[in-house]
Please model this.
Amino acid sequence: MKLTCTIASLAVLFSLAPGSAEAQEEARRAGFWVSVGLGAGVTTDDVAPDESHWGGAGFLRAGGVPDEHVVLGTELMGWVTDQNDVVTSRGVWTLFVQYYPSRTGGLFFKGGLGAAGVSFTTDLDPGTFVTSAGGFGMSLGSGYEFRLSRVTSLTVNGDWALQVIDNSAGGTDTSSLFLLTVGLTFPRIG
Model:
């Protein structure tokens, strides 16, 4: 089974390689695009600053390209973990600007402002108990797009997101999310 997976992975990589060089030369950012990906992340907060929690992460982005160096869009980043029978979910939704220093290169930097939310889910007898709260969110990140074809890129991202969440005591709790994700970007849809 392991050998079969290795051979299949190599076959996919080699089938993509000839088109990749051509795609890098001819590709230009234009029009509407969508990107989706998964990965892992860690969170820290001001309630327990010495503790960090690992979990699964993901993102969904969409937007438009007003210039070959600039992308404008909206992004939803999420993180989830299950520890001590409590499922914790954190999310940040932003409107963001993504900047490419090179007109055809894949390196980018991005930042956005928006909203944040957190929920805690616990299964208790006789049912499920959920608490949630919302507040302010922002994100900063960078990454690289590896062109697989003229219309598809493999996107590697590193993101930091800040959450300032209203708590039940009338104050705020601050959390940081550090996410590493890999996704696919489809830059010319429609």
Summary: Residues 2-26 form the longest helix (25 residues). The chain has one domain: 21-186.
